[in-house]
Amino acid sequence: MRARDKAQKKETAVGAEMFAALELLEKEKGIPKDYMLEKIAQALTTAFKRDNEGAGDNCIVEPDEKRRELRVYAQKTVVEEVENPAMEITLEDARTIRGGCELGDVVNVEIKTMNFGRIAAQTAKQVIIQGIREAEAGILYKRFTASEHEILSALVSRIDPRNGNVILEIDAMRSGTEKTEAVLPQSEQVRGETLHEGDRVRVYVVEVRVERNRPRVLISRTHPGLVKRLFELNVPELRDGLVEIKSISREAGSRTKMAVAAAQAEIDPIGACVGPRGERVNAVVSELKGEKIDIVRYSDDMEEYIAASLAPASVLKVEVAEDKKSCRVVVPDDQLSLAIGKEGQNARLAVRLTGVKIDIKSKSQEEAVRAAEANSSEADPSETDPSVSDLTETAAEDVPAEAAAPGTEE
Questions:
Q1: How much is the mean pLDDT over the chain?
Q2: Is the pTM of this model over 0.70?
């Protein structure tokens, strides 16, 4: 009798410790106690099946939070003669548990969890540990998913000398009370930017994936979205919807072009982003370690928009093709190099910003092309004599070679 009481007290103590541990998990890691109780129930069910040959899905687990106990029962059918002890019980034994039961009834037979075998207990332990990992992963995934396409503050934890990847400790929550690690690959680092252990940087959350049951946060310092979010942090008009960023093209570490538009005619979208004495744009440039930023005015008029996109160069004329996929731009002779930019960067960024292929020519180049086209038209009989285009094949044979092959002779 004393041994039974001692075992019962020990089991009760274990149950109390388990509930205390679950409450601590919920408080510190945010893992719901009900979720873990469900995982523990699954673990104990698995352990019961392992310890009882022939057992099926007849194990039930009932947590008693008031008494801080976890009771496990095997549901057994009352029979005259027991063939499967894991699933059946005699009428005599059943009536010691619940008086008045009859053949065919189902009774709950309590299983003392302290009687589980060592292997079964280990199985239960592994399932519980796995449950904690899954819960933590799920919580992190939800938190980071809420931060997708947003900026997070990060602390450089270490740098991998083998591949140059930077391991960052990033805030998992807005409050910054919980942290986790993420990798900033070399491909997402700004060229020329050197990070050191202990540096604090801002990163853009590109995407959150689940890989091997763990959340993987894809972060970047080169993504155009980083520039957009930095401006939104520094420009109230962007946050209030009075100014809108229409498009961004970026070559990280070097130059960014950003097209902005105002919701109301009286608002200057460029001035709002630049700020008093350039304070707002300078704050972004500082965060981006000196990256140049061109802010241009967006326009529904493609010619105006394309001309603005080539800033700081001035534009004389823009001719947009009918399909609106390409255009020809004429700039002053002394602005050609500026319009194209070093190694073509300015023109390249303008193409990405507008989505239109841009052919840039100086005024003198354009005049030379026009003159050549005019000369070509004068030498083309089909242009000067409309009747040429109406010649039949038979009549064409009598046409002089110069007329049959216009433009071949100057």
A1: 81
A2: no
